[in-house]
Amino acid sequence: MSPQNQSFLHDTFPSGFLWGSGTSAYQTEGAWNQDGKSPSIWDSFTHSSVTENLDRETANVASDSYNRWEEDVNALEYLGVRSYSFSLSWPRLFPDGNARGHPNPAAVEYYSCLIDKLLEKRIEPIVTLHHWDLPQVLQERFGGWKNDTLVDLFEDYAAFCFHTFGSRVRYWLTMHNPFLMAVQGYGTGVHAPGEKGGPAGSLIVAHNLIRAHAKAWHTYNNHFRSTQMGKVSIVLGSHWVEPQRGQTTAANVGLCQQSVEAVLGWFANPIFGNGDYPVSLKDKHGALLPTFTPEEKLWVQKTADFFAVSFGPNNLRLGRNLVHYGQTVTPDLRRLLGWIKLEYGDPSVLVAEGGWFSEARVGREDTVAIYLMKSFINQVLFDGVQVFGYSAWSLVDGFEWNYGYTIRRGLFYVDFSQQDRTRTPKTSAQYYRQVVADNGFPSEETSTEFTGHFPCEFHWGIADSTLQVR
Q: Which SUPFAM superfamilies does this chain map to (predicted)?
């Protein structure tokens, strides 16, 4: 184990480490009504009168990856990565939401071409079945994820994807960050579908998401694993919280534990733990919290072949609402990975989303993003956690959900005012390219020196380990 007080570790990653980058369909594909695609809940949400700046704040075109996917593959080649994490669009593949019907041929061809090109370039596809863009028709017909009918519909959709693409895909992710889907989508209404059902709504949705994931995993395990030999997991997001300096009391440590259980443990404990919700959630929510039967606990338990974690600004923003006086949310991926190792028996881990954001005005010299990228990646090296891959998020600038285009998370800059949506590597892309080439941080500095300027309004100062989020 590395010394706790060591701030930076010069070391390299294991041979074959799965360096990568990622995107999601809704944020980057655009082509929202092209080639037979139906609206998703996010299309309806951004087109509705609830949101302002209608023309500017939709993903109708976004990064236009549906039409410019080969440019995305070229960007991956520039980085030298070994994997690409992307999601399939359910409403593009099945405009009516029903995977027992006929798929949209144009969508099947699009994803097949993308997968084939990645494999041709020796880039591993890591495919997410559902990254928040539920078909709007399922929201209207059933109430979306509040209705347990979607558990079976998702199973059908997953089975189709496994059958159609599975011979070429070794890593599947059923869904991305269900915490945000449940809380932001059906609790606070900040995300699509914009429902403000409070904790009761979020708890029901989360329960159905967990069961849908488990069904998809069992479908793969029972019908596809023996021939396709792939692995299936779910991407769980989390913040990290710890006592403030001088406030490390037993009570504060307990509150920190409860805070992480309220986000990561909510989903991880049923899947990676004992098949049930954490006791702290039961104590907090009482009768509002749905229950698993004894049979369901055994059925949900161990329905993941590795632990996939998302660590970025969205969960850290929400984490601030889950702390009390004496604790602080901090961007410490190292300690989060250590917590996962201790809580869930040292699983193999994929950092499926790691990264931060820059204000849109920053442009191509995203110095803060480089600093945090270096910090997050280096934290993976500590403490012997079995991390086998890291996906720098995201590959290209895209539509950032309720923040629209006011922030950027891409390694490649996209000028959304230009029709051609040219991908231009930012300084963070240049830096990540070097880290990938070095396979980490060798003891002898071999990296190229990068030059650039901090923004004019950059605030120099001194701070502790806490990072402020918007």
A: (Trans)glycosidases
